[in-house]
């Protein structure tokens, strides 16, 4: 069996920036075990698989270790593959996922994703979090999946050098660190050592929590964000209300190939 594979840098203005994802179109679903092995072999933060079902596409995301319920950059990468390589021409791509229906449209070189907004609640800043990060955040929140540490300055966020062994022991799948920014509305970083991904380069799903938080904090619904990882990436965001957010970014094709099974 041979499968086509595409590697795309999402939330990127050029190759070697943004967040790389592998995308594998299928005619029918492979076994979960085989998809896990392919994701492990790819060794990227996410490998996306999709199958067309009439007018929409079923979409699933796998890290090198397990399937996850939401991934922004691999969703953007999947839409990019459909438009750039698979002759998809409809104005909107509809993906059916474990997080419900997700919608992606393209205008020029910008892809916009309509995602659910994640709720969050403030919790006490603990010494466990401060010790894991090597710095004490001003505020701490717990979302539906991730923990979020809020700092007062961008310099604090950029300077973080976490102890990933301690980060792995914290609650939640990942730890978002964020602050306001002078050049953007806010910046963030995302640590996920629980899944053997010390720092995710650009995390669309984290912005389902970041966007409503900063929209409320800054009193504006249209926001520009930067994820300050080594690769870095710009995200254009909008708080849509009604429990939805729009997350937009560019994508760059890096590699195409064939998997031999």
TrEMBL record:
Xref: Pfam families: PhzC-PhzF
Top-level division of the source organism's lineage: Bacteria
Keyword Isomerase among record annotations: yes
Record's keyword terms, sorted: Isomerase
Family: Belongs to the PhzF family.
Protein name according to UniProt: PhzF family phenazine biosynthesis protein
Species assigned in the record: Pseudodesulfovibrio portus
